Amino acid sequence: MTSRAGSRRGKGARRAGAVTAAAAALAAAVALAASGCSAGAVQVGATPPAGPPQPGSVQSASPAPSQGASSGTPACHPTALSPRPTAGDAAGPNVQRIKNRGYLIVGVAQDGYLTGYLDSFGQETGFDIDIARQVEQALFGTQDGKHIRYVAVTNQQRIDYLQGPDPRVDIVVDTFTITCDRAKKVLFSTDYYDGTQRVLVTKGSGYRSLDDLGGKKVCAQTNSTSLQAVAAYKSHPVPYGVKNLTDCLVALQQGQVDAISTDDTILAGLARQDPNTEVLPQIVEKEPYGIAASTNARDLIQFVNGVLEQIRPNTWGTIYRQWLEPALGTAQPPAAAYAG
Amino acid sequence: MGDGLATTSAHTTTAAGARPDTADPSARGQGRGSARSTPATLWLALAAAVLALLGVGAAGSATLAGRQATEARAVDSDEHLVVNVDELYHALADADATAATALMVGAVAPARLTAQYNSDITQADNALASASRDLAGDDRASKQLTQVASLLPTYTALVATAGANNRLGYPVGAAYLREASNLMRGTILVGVGKVADEERAAQSDAQNQVGGFPLWLALVAVVAAIVLIRVWRLLSRTTRRSVNPGLALGALIGVGLLVWSLVAVFGAADAAGQAQSAFTSVAADLQARDDLALAESFQSLMLIDRGSDGGEDQKGLDSHLKAVESGGALDSKAQTLWSTLDKSVTGANGVESAVENSQFYQAIDLVSGHGAKAAANSTGAQAGALDTELVHTFTGDQARYEQRAGAARSALDGGLWGGMIGGIVAAGAAAYGINRRLAEYR
Q1: What is the pTM of this model?
Q2: Where are the domains of chain B?
């Protein structure tokens, strides 16, 4: 419980000595009558402020200059940084450590409808989850769910949980955009989905692109490339950062922001949850997704790249059709590009 | 002789019981002016003695009656308000925990949790209405409660929205619940907590007043003693009698009144001290229940967020769970229940361990069970058993408090009329005694 120490009573009359009990009673009666006029009475026609609070994890947003997928050094190509898979990856130390442990630990979103979320049975479900299960299949020969454990991560935690000598998770599969800056902190797989940053607005709002949202609040996850892109956009929208993207939908539904801008996959999930919203066709930025691992787990990321190579021809399409095609239309898996 | 007596009467003292010589008219005429001085002095002495003894009686009466009224208010109003406001706090905290648990266990909230949530909100409504009525004259408390009243519909609306989205399987339901819970813990409960603080401080002030040293009574008694001694000495000089029976009787009654008042005051102070000690236990019981409800709330939120909150929910769970124990409210049975609960939450195979290992399905089973099924030995059931024991302890402590506060009140019984009557009788006796001397001059 919150600390309750140190408060002090304001009504001296109620605590007066009993020599003046009658006077105190009189004073209390007067105070009661007075309060009846001020605090207790309802003013006809008044409109007291009673709006909903801000979403739970709203944070002030003052993002750094844009560092999107194409903003690295001129020589950096974020989708061509990943090491090529080799025949000996399955015997690598990190892969063996996971096999010996008996389960793969994956950092995922828990509120990304269609990409990574808890279904009605409390099970992790979505496009990214099915991609992660392909890695489980390759490691353990099964997708029974007993050999994979999910850890919900926020945007900031996606990198934090992969760092240090004993990372909290083995891989992160969470609509994680590959950037050159991030690639200095984690190892990325090859691009497994070509996402695009787009904008979600309420139907009938009249907004057709970010160009119409100058001076308006546009919501995105804190520490995301999307929020940085919003802050850097030429029409100068006001970036509004939250910890969890579903908080953006709450803020939009409560009228606290005018739009949400993030990856098309996520927006498709938000639009599915609120049919009174729509995803605008404008592409703000490209967002190539990669699976991330610790910088000390080169064998693991090469193993993951091998898995992605295997699923691109068929399985990828099956997964995409199940989760994203109804909202985003047909798509093909991006071709793999490797470093060197 | 007559002249000499008259002269002596005028300037020194009259022998005790000696009537002034009035046989010689000339002497009477000479002595009249001198005799008027003595009666005037005696009248002054009479008035002073009467006022002093009436003062002792009034001070005793006011002290005893005032403290009795304060003690009565401490029990009938302040303690009632403390319990009432805390019930509001607990109902709201429990509603928040229940709403989070209902969302956590699946798409369809189990009927038992829905019923419990509705019951909590109804209980909170009743407690809020009652507290608002009782605290209508307290501007600060009224403002806090008005804010709570204005935010409660927003909270319930957010929970309802969360439930509707959760039923559809939409993750935005959890976002609405987080917002609701933040509103509850960050604003509503803080406001109620401030009111509870005020009421606890008021209750403590009242007990301190009852147990405090009777300064005014002591001051009046000292002044009265000085006055009576001077009157006695004056009478001794004036009447040449060492003792005026009436004044002596009045003084004795005054002393008796003072002793009776002090015995009553210190007896009440002792009982009030015991009552305050019992009230400390009552407050600890209430606090433990609140902490337990908040711990449950954080536990469910931890499972809803699944660690994406950076461990804040777990910190909240741990701190409130520890506070349940450290508050000093647990008897041996409650301590055993708490240890069982603590082990189930923080132990090797407990809820937190399951969360650490990302075994959320198992963690939910440990907390509540899935869907409509309520796990028999879940942490929710264990917390329920502990809460029941805390309510039992609270009931006992509250009865102990009321019994001791009642003893404090009883010790002061009859103070109002006893003091007044005693003072009047004492003053009457003194007046009668001095008047006897005055009659000698009529």
Answers
A1: 0.77
A2: 34-439
Query: Mean pLDDT across the stretch B375-402?
Result: 91
Cα–Cα distance, B274 to A331 (Å, whole number) = 78
Annotate B205-267 with DSSP letters as a single string. Answer: HHHHHHHS--HHHHHHHHHHHHHHHHHHHHHHHHHS-S--HHHHHHHHHHHHHHHHHHHHHHH
Distance from C-alpha of A329 to C-alpha of A317, rounded to nearest angstrom: 12
The dotted CATH code for A58-63+196-286 is 3.40.190.10
Contact A18/B287, CB-based, under 8 Å?
Answer: no
What superfamily does domain A78-193+288-328 belong to in CATH? Periplasmic binding protein-like II (3.40.190.10)
Q: Does B280 touch chain A (CB under 8 A)?
A: no
Q: Give the minimum alpha-carbon distance from B230 to chain A in angstroms, rounded to a whole number.
A: 29
Instruction: Name which of B172, B185, B201 is nearest A7 (Cβ-Cβ).
Output: B201
Q: Please report, for chain A, the start and end positions of each structural domain, with discontinuous segments joined by +.
A: 58-63+196-286, 78-193+288-328
Cα nearest neighbour of A28 on chain B? B137
Residues 6 or more apart whose CB falls under 8 angstroms from that of B343 comprise B350
Q: How far is CA A317 from CA A278, B247, B257, in A?
A: 25, 113, 100
Rounded-to-integer distance, Cα A104 and Cα A139, Å: 8
State the nearest Cα–Cα gap between B39 and chain A, in angstroms.
36
Give the model's confidence band at A152: pLDDT under 50 very low, under 70 low, under 90 confident, else very high: confident
Q: Which of A239, A202, A198, A197 is nearest to A220 (CA)?
A: A239
Residue linked to tokens 């930025």: A285
- Nearest residue of A to residue B71, measured between CA atoms: A18
The whole-angstrom separation of Cα B48 and Cα B419 is 18
Mean pLDDT over A262-273 rounds to 94
d(CA A288, nearest CA chain B) in Å: 23
For B412-436, write each residue's pLDDT tens digit: 988 889 999 999 999 999 999 998 8
Distance from the Cα of A251 to chain B's closest Cα (Å) equals 10
Helix (H) or strand (E) holding B70: helix B25-73
Contact A35 B65 (CB under 8 A): no
What would the pLDDT profile of B148-191 be if each residue is shown by its tens digit? Answer: 999 999 999 999 999 999 998 898 998 999 999 999 999 999 99
Chain A residues with beta carbon closer than 8 angstroms to that of B305: 110, 152
Closest CA to B291 of A340, A54, A1: A1
**A78-193+288-328 shares the fold of A58-63+196-286:** yes
Arithmetic mean of pLDDT over chain B: 86
| B 319-378: CB under 8 A from A | 320, 323, 357-361, 364, 370
Nearest-neighbour CA in chain B from A76: distance (Å)? 31
Out of A2, A28, A118, closest to residue B189 by CB? A2
Beta strands A58-59; A238-242: pairing state: antiparallel
Task: Look at A7 and B361 and tell me if their CB atoms are within 8 Å.
Answer: no
pLDDT value of residue B137: 82
Task: Give contacts of A55 with chain B, Cβ < 8 Å.
Answer: 175, 178-179
- d(CA B46, CA B49) in angstroms, rounded, equals 5
B235 has a pLDDT exceeding 90: no
Q: What is the mean pLDDT of residues B239-267?
A: 90
The tokens for B247 are: 């004044």
User: How many A/B residue pairs have CB atoms within 8 Å?
Assistant: 191
Whether the Cβ atoms of residue B165 and residue A61 lie closer than 8 Å to each other? no
* Token code pair at residue B353: 């361990």
Minimum-distance CB partner of A149 among B182, B200, B357: B357
User: What residues of chain A lie within 8 A of the CB of B370, using their CB?
Assistant: 122
- B391 sits in which H/E element: helix B379-411
Q: How many CB atoms lie within 10 A of CB A180?
A: 18
